Amino acid sequence: MPISSAFIIVALGITQIISWGTIVYAISVLSKPMAAELGWSQTFIFLGFSISLLVGGLVAKPAARFLEKRGGRVTMTMGSVVAALGLALLSQVTEATVYAAAWIVLGLASRLTLYDAAFATLVEIHGTAARRPISVLALFGGLASTVYWPICHYVNEAYGWRVAWIVCALSVLVLCTPLHLALPKKSATSNPRNGLNGNGVDPEPLVPASRRASAILLLAIALACNSFVTVALNAHFIPAVVMLGASAATAVWIASIRGVFQTLGRLAEMIFGQNLNPFAFAMLSTGILVLAFAPLAGGGASTPALLAFSILFGISIGLVTIVRGAVPLVLFGKHGYASVLATIATPGLVVTAVAPTAYAFVLDTIGPGWGFVILFVIALASFAATSALAWRFRARPNLP
Length: 400
Hints:
By secondary structure, the chain is mostly helical. It has a single domain, classed as MFS general substrate transporter like domains (Growth Hormone, Chain: A, Up-down Bundle), CATH 1.20.1250.20. 82% of the residues lie in helices and 0% in strands. The chain contains 17 helices and no strands. Helix 5 (115-126) packs antiparallel against helix 15 (337-352) and helix 7 (144-159) crosses helix 8. The longest helix has 34 residues, at 5-38. The chain is globular. It starts with a helix and ends in an 8-residue tail after the last helix.
């Protein structure tokens, strides 16, 4: 019996909330209590997270090839088991070598479980009709920080950071593993009679093969700069807000509201953006990130200014996630989609591997004010790259 598309999207959506919340967002809340107990600096704590990003960049292409060969079901099920192992290791850390090993494991898990793997699974099932499922799936992922920042904060307050990491590990193992196992097998999704892929003729990619490399390069630059800002703030927004004078509870609340607006931004794209030129959509998403810094320039460290930043930042990264998944599908087509995502993602993962550690150093040396200025300049570079992409590759009207 065929598995319904709605079940697939909901199952992947739940696993994206859990995977992003545990692998990526939890460290932002748990870094300070870990550093206090272990006697390590914040810079060293986030060096581990940087290691995971670097490992993710190094294994991105092999992981994509594995997914194209074995399918999303096998890949993501394996990834959830690997992620649970890495998170469990973090709960037992007493030495630097174990800490580094845990993040190496999580770097591999990230390539097997996060958006690129989930998007490629949807393309495996739906072909070029996957743009809308990708948008729907992104709605779920936007709630990861909203769910897991408070969970980690309150579990840490009640039981300590080690128990918080155990909760994260059990979330992945108990919930993600069976949901990934419930996905259709690759042999089922490759059957055109299963009703998931559809029988229509795929539209031609917008970017011709002769100009593919330059388009991928510009998109990779835009997403790498955007990822640097996002990863730095995923890791340090809460500590930075506390350094600016807010209480820990206020910082968690301001940071968590971002997830709601990530989801609202993606919902708006679902309703209004399906026929939007992909180049214009990429410019819009990166442009909003530039505008997000305006409230900080006008209101400084006030709670309303920080809240406005968090809202605009959430909308931007919500839309950029769809850019990352849907725009390459429209520009380059479904064939080799996972490998294209890996090619685009690899420079960003390698560059952003330094983001948590570098931004921790910035906060320690020149403070959060200048730190936001640096991120603003990087956000401008991301917008410039998407503008160059739009200028060089003018899309035809009536896009699918």
